[in-house]
Amino acid sequence: MVTNINRRSFLKGTALSLAVGASMATAGGILSGCSSSSEAPQGENGTFSASSKGFHGDVTVKLTIEDGKISKADIADMGETPEKGGKAAQILSEKITEAGSLEGVDSVSGATTTSRAIFRAAEECLQQAGLLEETGEIAMEPGIYVGEAYGFDWIEPVRVKVEVDETSFKSIEVIDKKLNREEPLIMKAAEDLLIPRMVESQSVIVDSITGATSVSAGIKTATERALKKALEAGGSNSTAIHNFYKPLEQSTDEKTLEYDIVVCGLGGAGSSAAMAAAEAMAAAGREVSVLAIETAGKYGGTASNAGEPFSINAPRYIEKYNNGEEWCDYDSLYEDWMANYSKGTPCKPECVKLLMDESGKTVDWLQFDHGFVFSNAKKGFGTSTWLCKQQYIYLSNQDEGKDYASEYPNYTFGDRSSSVGQYYDSIIADFEALGGKYLLETQAYELILDDSGNEVRGVKARSNVDGTEYTINAKAVILCTGGFGGNGDMLEKYLQNPEYPLAARWHLWGMYQNKGQMIDSAIQQGAGTYNIDMSPCIHFKTTSDYLTEYPCYYRDGLEERMLEQNTWSLNDIPMMMGINGNALQVGADGVRHYNESGTFAFWAGGPSWFTIYGSDYVDGLAQNGYPGEDGKFQSSTKVFGQGGYPQVTPIPQVYEVLKTAEDKGYVFKADTLEELAGKIGVPPEEFVAQVERYESYCKNGKDEEFGKSEKTLISQINYGPYYAIKADATPYATIAALDVDTSLNVLKADGSTPINGLYACGNDSGGVLYTNLEPYAQYGGVALGWAFTSGRLAGANAVEKLDS
Q1: Distance between CA atoms of residues 592 and 598, nearest Å
Q2: What angle do CA 310, 313, 316 make, to 5 degrees?
Q3: 263: β partners
């Protein structure tokens, strides 16, 4: 298979590898004035502190200086992502202290934004201590300069060209957009909002666009690198780049707004709620008085990145496309739902019926009234056989026999992101046409109730851009904030499940802006919860870290959803080992918790686990590669996977690759199982007993613990050295929070008293559909179906109750 790599692919892969290395090497590369040699300035002794903007907040660095060297570096990650930013803070603290300076210390791969913030703050500390020259004046050679840096995707960087004059940058343009593989709608939000602010403020550290944080970081870093080239060409000193480290000025303004209805969040639930409320007002002859506020720089939220909503026999749709014949047997699906979700804290049957009765009508409403385009009904996941979900339509999943070009002449069907973006543009345009208003980049953070706590009065919100404070008085508030998956403190606080180790900071594969402030505010003011301790919505898994050190090669074909060129890389070998459902996986206690090959079963072990191998498996990869056939590829994961690896292709580099991953701290190797247990921090006796028990199942062909099939019971832990790969479950979002009734009215903690005027939809109330002892339903699209349906109903209900 390797002989099929063409010259272009090889050179491209090599160039990418070099680019990664170069970006790491230059991350702290403006530090020529910071030598630790005996001729360097001694400066002042003492502790110096400075802060700089990181991925999610300010990163604070404290450097202790003794005799011209850094004797101690303390870095507070200040809310950075624990698996990336927090790790970078720890690694760089150790490396800077060990080196005694910043010279030669590289950024941490996968945490470029936090690394840059740390270096910026550390340089300021060194300036305070007199060990780094003061910021020089700007002198650039006019022209166009190109910079690149990685955004969300790690296969191709974001590239920008920056036009400069002698003292300023005049424009920033993202180039090679078809190569960078960033999600188009998210990239557009950054281009439309971030770049103008950077040019206006002449700063590379303005706040990232919420909901587009990673791609914003890529644009800012790439721009900074381009400016460094211009400064060097113009003869500026090494610290002149500091002139472009200017935060935006924050406003002290306070504004009061008056609306009948405020919708918090503008994803699937919020878009539906706002639209339905505006429609109901217009139909009643009222002036439309609806404000939707969204913390991200774009509307659509997690819903625009999902695949399909749950839908039962959409009546108008089946009349048009299926001769009026039903796709799904309502009664058998309902019976199955009740059988599966009536344990522990059970689902609310009346809410399940509400979803099943109204979901088809919602799909009709979206499709025929507001510009969405859905497929014919399809099966769910795993063993689900009901035709109860309808996918968003994009280029590569269109139903046979339909002429989409003729039926939808105003739409361009391409990748999933761009296609779905048109649907949200349509419903928001309809909302505005009726008089509805919305604010992006505005975070609702506090619920306002009357003195009795029985009736809503509005919300408090804050601009993410300039800090303007809003008091928004309203008669009804509809919470559609997407859950609390982006809030590590809330995950630890509320996922206190009695049966499963869920209370932790999960490796989110979703929208970090969903921080749950309004959910928590409602709870603090007496709102009840329902199954808030259940598993988040988990479809994918990945390793706790990943490699970018090896070339990534293009191969034939396009990825189905985003229509991006397929790739493959050695970088994926540890990842594919970590997520392998045919291998033994143990939790933090050293024992199994689930059938490793079961559909989405890995949630039961909590956010992380270890996948275990002996050298018999690794030697097999080295000698034979993955089983299969020539021309096929062993699949990787969508979560930072880089396309997998060719089958039936020996991988002699596997030992080196695993060593690279070991050095990064997510692969562990030991000569004995007892030693491996010590390295991964599990009890040795339980761990060794578990390995022996599992291997006996493999050899006997029967899993006596979790019923894993004989086909997936593969013996591969027979001799050392032994390996453990740390892997993570990666949820889209949390799906349970507040308690609601069938009007979507939020209930107090007593479970029966409504808080008048307060509604919760989508992931802010989805727990009413489930039990806390089972994961997200496998029928397909339930979270998105509930978002659309609960939003539509809540918007209409809120209007109906306005004058009551």
Answers
A1: 13
A2: 115
A3: 292, 478
The whole model's pTM is what? 0.89
> For 578, what's the count of Cα atoms within 13 Å in the CB-facing half-sphere?
33
Q: Which of 127, 159, 139, 307 is nearest to 236 (CA)?
A: 139
* CATH 3.40.50.12780 correct for 143-244: no
pLDDT of residue 100: 84
Listed residue (144, 153, 149, 200) closest to 173, CA to CA: 144
Rounded to 10 deg, the angle between the 330-340 and 349-364 helix axes is 140
With respect to CATH, is domain 538-732 assigned 3.90.700.10?
yes
757 conformational bin, left if phi > 0, alpha if psi -120 to 50, beta if neither: left
Q: How far apart are CA 564 and CA 503, in angstroms?
A: 36
Residue 293 token pair: 């506020």
In angstroms, the CA 584 to CA 578 distance is 10
Instruction: Work out the number of other CB atoms within 10 angstroms of the CB of residue 430.
Output: 18
Question: Do residues 552 and 567 lie in contact, with contact meaning Cβ atoms separated by under 8 Å?
Answer: yes
Q: Which CATH architecture has domain 2-128?
A: Alpha-Beta Complex (3.90)
In this structure, the strands spanning 722-733 and 667-670 are antiparallel
CA 679 vs. chain centroid, Å, equals 29
Distances (CA, A) of 453 to 244, 456, 457, 757: 48, 8, 10, 11
Write out the DSSP string of 39-103: TS-----EEEEEEEE-SSSEEEEEEEEETTEEEEEEEE-TT--IIIIIHHHHHHHHHHHHHTSST
Give the C-alpha separation, 712 to 708, whole Å: 7
Closest-CA residue to 301 (of 393, 185, 411, 409)? 185
Return the exposure string of 616-628: e unless at least 16 CB atoms fall within 10 Å of the residue's CB, then b.
ebbebbeeebbee
In the chain, the amino acid numbered 246 is K
Beta bridge partners of 760: 479
**Which burial class, exposed, middle or buried, applies to 700 when counting CB atoms under 10 A from its CB (0-12, 13-18, 19+)?**
exposed
19 half-sphere exposure, CB direction, 13 A CA radius: 20
Domain ranges of the chain: 2-128, 143-244, 538-732
Q: What is the distance of C-alpha 626 from the center of its chain?
A: 30
Contact 504, 491 (CB under 8 A): yes
Instruction: Identify the H or E element spanning 690.
Output: helix 684-700
How far, CA to CA in Å, does 145 sit from each of 12, 261, 443? 21, 48, 36
Structure tokens that stand for 443 in this block: 């975070």
Residue of 55, 173, 177 lying closest to 107 (CA atoms): 55
Q: What is the token pair recorded at 518?
A: 């309004």
Q: What is the rounded distance in angstroms from the CA atom of residue 754 to the CA atom of residue 758? A: 8
Helix/strand/coil percentages in the chain, nearest 5: 35, 20, 45
Phi/psi zone of residue 539: left (φ > 0), alpha (ψ -120 to 50 degrees), beta? alpha
pLDDT at 40: 46
Establish whether domains 143-244 and 538-732 are of one fold.
no
User: Who contacts 129 (Cβ-Cβ below 8 Å, separation ≥6)?
Assistant: 43, 44, 46, 48, 63, 65
Pairing of the two strands 633-634 and 645-646: antiparallel
Closest Cα to residue 504, out of 287, 283, 728?
728
b/e code 553-570 from CB counts within 10 Å (16+ = b): bbbeeebebbbbbebbbb
Residue identified by tokens 């802010």 is 764
Residue for token pair 């991200």: 296
The whole-angstrom separation of Cα 310 and Cα 387 is 9
The answer to whether residues 622 and 654 touch, using CB atoms and an 8 Å cutoff, is: yes
pLDDT lower than 50: segments of the chain: 1-40, 80
Alpha carbons within 13 A on the beta-carbon side of 51: 11
Position of tokens 């799904």?
A: 328
